[in-house]
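Sequence only, no structure available. Ideas?
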Amino acid sequence: MNIIIATHNQGKVREMNFLFKEFIPQTYNINLLSLNDNNYSCIPEIVEDGNSFKANAIKKATLTANYTEQIVIADDSGLVVDALNGEPGIFSSRYAGENATDEGNIEKLLEKLNNVPKDFRTAHFVCVIAIAAPDNLIGTFEGKCYGMIGTEIKGNNGFGYDPVFIRTDSGKTFAELPHDVKNKISHRARAFEKASATIEKYIK
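Reply:
I predicted one. C-alpha cells follow.
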C-alpha cells in the first residue's frame, strides 16, 4: 500500500519515516512516498490559507488525496511563543516573508525576543496531522511540545526553529539532540502516536 506524506520538506519526510517505524508494525507492507517523488511532481502547490494548524493540515491532506487517489498524511506545525502573543504560529514557515529560510525566520524571532527575559521566553511547538483518502477525511490528531526559546543558535540537527527551541527537561535545543531522541519526544511524535491506531486500523 502506498501512503503519501504531503510535503516537500525533507526534514518532515525523515521524521515521518522514523515515526512509521516507531509506531506502525513493520508487518504491514507500506510504501511511504512524498511530494518529492517524480510521480507527484505535477501536483500544484497548495496554498496554506487556513486560520489554524488544523485547517491547513486538512486542506493539504484532502486535496493531495484527491489529486493522487491515494491515502495521504499531511501535517501543519509551528511554533507558538507566549511573549509574542502566539507568533509565529501558523506563519512559522514564512515568518520572515514568503520565501523565508529557516535562518531568516530564526533571526526575526530572536530580534523580536531581544529584550524578553529568560523566564518569559516560554513557547511550544504544535503539530496537527490530518489523514485523508480520496473524498474522505479520516481524522485529525494534535500534539504539543513545551519549552523555551534560547538566545542563540545551538546544534546542527533538526530544521526550522529546532536550533533555538530548548526542551526544559533536557536543557538542550532540539537541534542538539540526536535525531532518534528528538523524534520520540517532539510535537509531531505526540500527534503521530495518537494517529497511529487509526492508521493501523485503516490499512488492515
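The two ends are 10 Å apart (CA to CA).
Hope that gets you unstuck.
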